[in-house]
Every structure is written in C-alpha cells, then in structure tokens.
C-alpha cells in the first residue's frame, strides 16, 4: 500500500511542477519580449523626439533669421530707390542731415540692426550712417575698437558685388560682430556701393537661445567655407567646432562622443543666404535627467514580475484540481471510447478532448468561419436531423443563444416563391429579419431561410399554457401586421423531443407542397388536418403520407422514409383493395420513389429496380432498399448549399463586375435563386450591399489602371461598367478626395 501511495504523491508533484513551468513560460516569455520591446521602443522614441525637437528648433531659427535677412534685403532696395539716400545727398552739406534721418528711420525697423553703413565705391575710405560720416580708420579704431578689424580684410569685404555674411572676432573670442553686406545696384543692374548692417552677437544669441535648451544643447550658424558665424550662449566653443576643418568634420558626423557625453548633431541649410544651422544635443545629459524615472519604471516592472510569479504559483496550484475534475467528468460522460492503456492521466484527458473535438470539428469550423450564420446553421442542421444526442443539441443551442420552451416543438414553412420583383425584395428581407427571432406569450420562434426550398422555416417552441393553433394564429397576425404579406404556410405536427424536430419539418414541407400541388385556396395548411380529412372521407389515396415520403427522401432522412413506407403499405393491406386498385396504388408508390431516386442518383437507378414483386411485403422491402440508397446519396452531397454557392457567386461577381448589365436580377437568374436571397447573402458575406460591393470592385480596378497603365481616363471608367464619365468623375472625387487625373499624378 505504501509504494503506490508514494508513487501517486510523486506523480501529483510532477504534474504540479509541469503546470507551474507551463504558466511560467506563458508569463515570462511574453513579459520578457514586451519588456525588451518596450525598452527599445522607449529609447528609439526618445531619440526620435530629440531629433525631431532639434530639427524643429533649427526650422524655427532658420525662419527667424531668414525673415530678418529678407527684411534687410528689402531695406537695401528701398535705400537704393530713395532719392534722399543717394550718394549726392550724402555728400551735400545740408541734405546729408535728411539722409541721416532716413537711415535712422530704416534702422529702427529691424530689431537686429546695431548700425547700418552706406559705402560707395567712389569713396573707398568713407562710411555714411545715421550718426554721420566716418572714415575707415575711425570705423575700426573708434567705433568698433573692441573688435579685431583688419583694414585690408575690411577693404576686401567692401569690394564684394554679392550679398555676404561675415563675422569680426572680438579679442580672443572667435565670435564678435556679425555683418551683412548687401550691394546697392543702379537701374541698369550695376553695383555702385553697398549697405553694411552690423549686428551685435548678443542680439543673435538672444534669437538662438529662444529655440534651444541651454542645459542640453547649443545651436550654431555656419557660413560658407565652414566658418562660424554665430552661436547660442554658452561658456565656450567646443574644441571640435572652432576651425573650418573641425567644423566640416563635425557636420559630417551624426554623433560625437566627448568627455561630457554623447552629442547628437542635426543640421539644416538655408540655400538663399548660404547659412547652415547646426544643433548639438547632449543625449547623455537628457538620459541622465530621466534616470530617476527609469529607476521607478524598472522598480514597477520588477514588482510586476514578482507579483506575476506569485500569482502563477497560486493559480497553478488551484488550477490542478479543476482540470482533474474535468477529466473525470469526460470519463463519465463520453461513452464507447477506449484509450490506450499506456497513456498517463494527462494524455487520457487530451485523448478524450481530441476525440470530442474531432466529432464536432465540422460544425465548429462553420460556426467560427461564419459567425452571422451560426444560429441559422444550427437551426438548419437541427431541422435536417443531423443531431442525435440531446446533450449535443442543447450545448449548440446554448452556444448560439437560442432559448426554448420545453412543452413541445413544431416547424412552420413560410413560402417565399411569390417574391419575384424588385418591389417585393424589401418585403422578403424585412420578413426574414422579422422572423429571425420572434417571441410571443408562452412561445419562442427562430427563423432560417431554406435556400433549396425557397421558404423560411420557423422553428417554434411552446409552453404548456399555449396550443399550436393559438401560437400559429398569433405569429401569422404579426407577419401580416408588420409586413402586409399573407404567404402560404405549411405547419408540421407537434413533437415532444428536440431530436425529432426534423419530422415536423418534413411534415411542414409536405403540407406546403400539398397547397401547391392540389391548388388549395387557403394559405394555412396543417399536416395533421390533411390526414384527418382523408380518414373522415374513407379510404383515399394517402396524399399526406406520399408528400411526407417525398420530402423525407429529398432531405435524406431514411428513418422517416422507412416509417412512412411501412405506414402506407400497412394502410393498403388493411383497406382490402381490389386487384385493380391495389395495382394502381402500388405502382404509383413505386413510381414516386423511383422518380425521386432518378432525380437524386440518376437514370442508373431504374436498372436496379425489381418490379417483379409478388406481394406488398416484397414491395415494401424493395422500396426501403431504394430509399436507403437515395438517402445515402443525399447525405453524401454538400450539407449547405449556401456554402457551395459562396465561391461560385463571388467568383461570378469578381469576373462580371465590369459588365454594364450586371444587376441583382441577373445574378439571381444566373444561380436560379431569389433576388432577396442574393441581396441578403452578399450583405452578410461581404458586409456591403450588392451595389456597394460592385462599386468597390470597380473603384479598385480604376485605381489600378490609373497607376499601372496610360489608358485615357474616359476609357478606363467606361471599361469597368460606367456610362456617365463626368458623373463618375465627381463621385470618384467625393470618395477618394481627388479627381482620377490627380490620383494618377499623385501615385506615379
């Protein structure tokens, strides 16, 4: 006794460890991946934000500086055109005062101008400003004595014939006075002088400082030949950004490693003024500021990890016992399943579940593939007698939210063959939607459109407080009241068990067929009333049983077919027919079965029929034998005609959508189904109405041809099925947001 107990304890321990390991893997693998991805994404996102932020800063700086420089260009043009600022006025002893006032007025129009000087090539040693005239020597030694102004270099700059931006060092500093020289041109286009605008570096720094975080980055202005023009405020210029060669090398690198950290470089060029704007961002400093936040996040991640592992231990321990109970439950409920003896408990559990899933795989695949049709599929298969186990029926009904009363069940077949025009399509669609889920006092009904029968099957469950007649009357009143339609209706008898619901379905089909075949004027036909009428009138050819037999064969239900044959033969025996009547009766019965058999199997069935029967018993055996073949042939066919038609219908639409004549009526005629069915079928399968689906196909084809071909737009639109090109062009623009021509240009 002790050894088996120890083995059992060891087995349980191994199972528990297996559970814990599986849960840990399920938790840790995605947790680790998500953590790594989150970290990598965060770093990349931050770097992208730094890059975008730097670029935005540079765009802002370029915009501000460019606006100011453009303003100086405009001032220069005004000075050249102003008669008060000519060279003659500058030299005049009296009118030179007027010129000084004009220059003073121009000067105050810009925030960055420190002073503006007019220089004429005819007077190479003299400047004119708002403060008066001064020579070149005075300019360098008095006006700007703190700057390193070289007279020869200044003379060279003043001889420029194109706009130029230069910087004049201040003492030991590379940056000092920023100058912008703009030539003055005559009406003939020749330069006769220039205007030199001087800007203090503090003013430029003020502009640059507004667009950068001083603690983590700096912005520089670099002129042509890679010489530094200006910089945002800071302690000193970095060693890697002083000389032109160093500047060129730095601008060619996207990242620079320094003792202060990793520096990320971004640059933006202004081609109009020949200035490059360069930003340096210390990413190490930024990440340093985020270290506290990172530490907090890592702490949270660690807490989540520990919490997750603790939860896994608790959940894994609790989950072991419920799964064991599920295995025992399957062992008790699943019959006739013998698993290999060498399997462990877990493998037995897997074996039973796999067996159960294989038995129901086809149904579950249909339900998962076509969720909107799940309820209709379950009802349809139930009516066709495809389920034999009550537990399976109840499970499937519950899975599609079908709730039934349990006192009795029957089926009503509502004829839809009368719908044959556009004006009736909406009526039938409304009727199907109305009957999809219909409830009343003490009854519940669910509808399903039966494609092959061109009818709507209404599956009705009853409570003990209501009769079949009262439920039928109430349902028909609601149909007429809501839809103004009184369709022909065949009603099967009430059954007590769900697994027999296909009997009442076949009886309903027989009753509906009875009204068509025998041209009855009334719209409501109970199968039971057909039988009672024949019993009252004495012996008459059993029309009700014959219709029921025909429908059972067409539906492939051998059980009902054999019972009906037995009933019809027994009735003939009890009626003691004379030889002539008996011969007519038996051959008509034989012809009915053979006729359906030829329709289902083919003419080859005729050669197998044994017509040399000596009595009714032999005839019964022959009929039952043929019925079995017919039912097996029916069951071997596709179980869902809608599933079979799905590919054919959409292949047809995808092939013929360019036709000018395509319509619901044409498609319905092509597949020999009702217009209403095609309309509802396409809506459910594609999510679009018929016209919307065709429009989408045509739109995609037009887009494809606009991009891939050079065909004229008119020919493309006509080729996909539209006559009115101008009207569709407007429609195309309302959908896509641009005309076909604009779409073609934008996507090439």
UniProtKB/TrEMBL annotation:
InterPro entries xref list: Homeodomain-like_sf, HTH_AraC, HTH_AraC-typ_CS
Entry keyword Isomerase: no
Domain HTH araC/xylS-type: 647-746
Source species, domain of life: Bacteria
SUPFAM superfamilies cross-referenced by the UniProt entry: Homeodomain-like (SSF46689)
Keywords for this protein: DNA-binding, Membrane, Transcription, Transcription regulation, Transmembrane, Transmembrane helix
Gene Ontology molecular functions: DNA-binding transcription factor activity; sequence-specific DNA binding
Residues passing through the membrane, by range: 20-39, 295-315
UniProt xrefs under Pfam families: HTH_18
Transcription regulation listed as a keyword: yes
PANTHER family, A to Z: ARAC-FAMILY TRANSCRIPTIONAL REGULATOR
Protein name: HTH araC/xylS-type domain-containing protein
Gene source species: Enterococcus phoeniculicola ATCC BAA-412
Taxonomic lineage of the native organism: Bacteria, Bacillati, Bacillota, Bacilli, Lactobacillales
């Amino acid at each position: 006794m002790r050894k088996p107990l120890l083995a059992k304890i060891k087995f349980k321990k191994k199972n528990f460890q297996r559970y814990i390991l599986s849960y840990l893997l399920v938790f840790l693998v995605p947790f680790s991946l998500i953590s790594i991805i989150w970290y990598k994404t965060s770093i990349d996102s931050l770097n992208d934000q730094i890059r975008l932020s730097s670029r935005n800063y540079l765009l802002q700086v370029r915009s501000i500086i460019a606006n100011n420089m453009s303003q100086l260009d405009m001032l220069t043009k005004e000075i050249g055109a102003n008669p008060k600022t000519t060279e003659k006025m500058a030299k005049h002893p009296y009118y030179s005062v007027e010129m000084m006032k004009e220059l003073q007025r121009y000067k105050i129009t810009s925030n960055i101008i420190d002073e503006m000087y007019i220089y004429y090539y005819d007077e190479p040693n003299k400047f004119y400003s708002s403060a008066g005239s001064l020579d070149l020597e005075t300019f360098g030694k008095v006006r700007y004595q703190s700057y390193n102004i070289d007279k020869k270099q200044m003379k060279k700059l003043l001889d420029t014939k194109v706009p130029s931006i230069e910087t004049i060092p201040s003492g030991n500093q590379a940056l000092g006075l920023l100058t912008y020289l703009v030539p003055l041109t005559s009406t003939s286009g020749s330069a006769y002088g220039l205007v030199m605008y001087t800007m203090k570096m503090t003013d430029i720094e003020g502009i640059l400082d507004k667009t950068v975080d001083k603690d983590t980055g700096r912005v520089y202005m670099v002129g042509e030949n890679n010489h530094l023009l200006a910089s945002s405020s800071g302690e000193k210029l970095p060693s890697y950004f002083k000389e032109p060669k160093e500047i060129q090398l730095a601008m060619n690198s996207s990242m620079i490693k320094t003792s202060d950290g990793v520096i990320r470089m971004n640059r933006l060029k202004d081609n109009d003024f020949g200035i490059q704007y360069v930003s340096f961002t210390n990413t190490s400093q930024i990440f340093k500021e985020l270290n506290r936040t990172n530490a907090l996040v890592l702490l949270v991640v660690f807490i989540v990890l520990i919490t997750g592992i603790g939860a896994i231990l608790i959940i894994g321990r609790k989950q072991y016992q419920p799964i064991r109970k599920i295995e025992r439950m399957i062992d008790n409920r699943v019959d006739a399943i013998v698993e290999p003896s060498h399997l462990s408990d877990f493998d037995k559990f897997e074996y039973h579940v796999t067996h159960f899933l294989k038995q129901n795989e086809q149904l579950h695949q249909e339900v998962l593939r076509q969720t909107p049709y799940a309820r209709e599929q379950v009802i349809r298969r139930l009516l066709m007698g495809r389920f034999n186990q009550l537990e399976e029926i109840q499970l499937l009904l519950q899975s599609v939210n079908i709730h039934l009363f349990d006192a009795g069940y029957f089926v009503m077949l509502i004829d839809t063959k009368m719908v044959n025009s556009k004006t009736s399509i909406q009526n039938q669609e409304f009727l199907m939607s109305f009957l999809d889920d219909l409830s009343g006092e003490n009854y519940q009904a669910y509808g399903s459109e039966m494609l092959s029968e061109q009818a709507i099957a209404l599956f009705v469950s009853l409570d003990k407080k209501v009769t079949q007649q009262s439920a039928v009357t109430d349902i028909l009143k609601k149909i007429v009241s809501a839809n103004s339609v009184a369709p022909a209706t065949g009603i099967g008898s009430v059954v007590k068990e769900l697994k027999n619901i296909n009997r009442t379905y076949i009886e309903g089909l027989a009753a509906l067929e009875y009204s068509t075949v025998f041209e009855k004027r009334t719209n409501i036909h109970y199968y039971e009333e057909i039988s009672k009428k024949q019993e009252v009138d004495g012996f008459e050819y059993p029309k009700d049983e014959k219709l029921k037999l025909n429908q059972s064969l067409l539906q492939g239900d051998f059980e009902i077919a054999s019972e009906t044959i037995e009933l019809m033969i027994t009735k003939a025996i009890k009626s003691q027919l004379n030889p002539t009547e008996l011969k007519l009766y038996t051959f008509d019965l034989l012809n009915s079965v053979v006729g359906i058999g030829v329709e289902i199997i083919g003419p080859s069935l005729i050669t197998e029929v044994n017509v040399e029967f000596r009595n009714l018993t032999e005839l019964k055996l022959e009929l039952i034998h043929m019925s079995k073949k017919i039912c097996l042939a029916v069951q071997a066919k596709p179980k869902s005609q809608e599933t079979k038609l799905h590919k054919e219908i959409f292949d047809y639409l995808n092939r013929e959508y360019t036709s000018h004549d395509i319509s619901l009526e044409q498609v319905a005629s092509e597949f020999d189904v009702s217009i209403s069915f095609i309309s509802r079928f396409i809506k459910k399968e594609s999510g679009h109405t018929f016209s919307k689906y065709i429009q989408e196909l045509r739109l995609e084809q037009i887009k494809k041809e606009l991009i891939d071909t050079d065909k004229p737009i008119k020919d493309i639109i006509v080729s996909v099925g539209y006559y009115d090109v101008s009207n569709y062009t407007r429609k195309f623009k309302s959908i896509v947001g641009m005309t076909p021509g604009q779409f073609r240009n934008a996507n090439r």
